[in-house]
Amino acid sequence: MLNKFKPITPGLRGTVLVSKKHLSKDKPVKSLTKPLPSTGGRNNQGRITSRRMGGGVKRKYRLIDFKRNKLDIPAEVVRNEYDPNRSAFISLLKYDDGELRYIISPKNINVGDKLISGENVEIKNGNCIPLKNIPVGTNIHNIELKPGAGAQLIRSAGSSAQIVSKETPYVQVKLISGEIRHINKNSRATIGEVSNPDQKNIKLGKAGRKRYLGFRPKVRGVVMNPVDHPHGGGEGRTSGGRNPVTPWGVSTKGKKTRNNKKTSVFIIKRRKK
């Protein structure tokens, strides 16, 4: 659900944000958080390695259970929360043995719902099951690439993948990018889609809200000096005089950078361009 605002100030004109009325306002569980130091995009030598980072509201990291390795122990959804570190919402689970854990909140999960992780549990929204036991055509998220390593695929807001077919010892999964790849049949995945599908429709409305999130301004190369960027310099306004490159001269805007030949064998169909 989206919130739209009356343009009573310039910053509110055109602003569209995701409604958080259904989320808990309680502070996160202290034992499931840890400090998140601000680096400003700099490494241990103080040099900028990631540009356009810095500032932003202070936040704590929420420890998310991507492994879902408490097998055959039912858990109840205590509350749904906002997580400043990711686009999806998170849910706090309380297991029957009293343990608390955070998970990526699936779509249409409500407080009081019962979830479980196991080999042969019900095909139900939010349950975590090995791929070999999930029917073909089912929407899934939080997918492991290696059994027991924890979920690595389909974790952002509103995303989901689909099981296309099953072949020993792999399962064919179609990702949201259009890529179809083989994944080990013993890897686990969660049934359903990720929460907060309206994330893609938000409009921040003002530069200040972007700064709250920890993003700094993006300066174009063509307005820099030649010492700072290959596109810099020139008399008057220029277009850069060459194909788009990074400040270090590497081609950008479409140049393929994937360099993982070991796992290329598992990709059946490349993603959409």
What does this structure look like?
The chain folds into 2 domains: 23-39 and 53-200, Roll (SH3 type barrels); 219-264, Ribosomal protein L2, domain 3 (Irregular), CATH 4.10.950.10. 2% of the residues lie in helices and 25% in strands. It has one helix at residues 207-212; strands at residues 2-4, 16-18, 33-35, 60-62, 75-81, 90-95, 100-104, 114-115, 128-130, 139-141, 143-144, 151-153, 161-167, 170-174, 180-184, 188-191, 267-269. The protein has a 7-stranded antiparallel beta sheet with strand order 9-16-10-13-14-15-17, with no helix packed on it. It has a 4-stranded antiparallel beta sheet with strand order 7-6-5-8, with no helix packed on it. Strands 1-2 form a two-stranded antiparallel ribbon.
Structure summarized in a few sentences:
The chain is 2% helix and 25% strand. The protein is mainly beta.
Secondary structure elements and pairings:
Layout (H helix, E strand, L loop, with lengths): L1 E3 L11 E3 L14 E3 L24 E3 L12 E7 L8 E6 L4 E5 L9 E2 L12 E3 L8 E3 L1 E2 L6 E3 L7 E7 L2 E5 L5 E5 L3 E4 L15 H6 L54 E3 L4
Antiparallel strand pairs: 1-2, 3-4, 5-6, 5-8, 6-7, 9-16, 10-13, 10-16, 11-12, 13-14, 14-15, 15-17
Strand order of the largest sheet: 9-16-10-13-14-15-17
| CATH topology category name of the largest domain | SH3 type barrels
Strand content: 15-25%
Structural class: mainly beta
Q: Biggest sheet, in brief?
A: 7 strands, antiparallel
Domain module count: 2
Would you identify the CATH architecture of the largest domain? Answer: Roll
The residue fraction in helices comes out at under 10%
Output the CATH class name of the largest domain: Mainly Beta
Broad shape: globular
- How many E strands? 17
Q: What is the string of helix and strand elements? A: EEEEEEEEEEEEEEEEHE
What is the CA-atom radius of gyration, in angstroms? 22 Å
**Distance between the terminal alpha carbons, to the nearest Å?**
30 Å
Low-confidence stretches: none
List the total number of helices. Answer: 1
Roughly what is the average pLDDT, rounded to an integer?
95
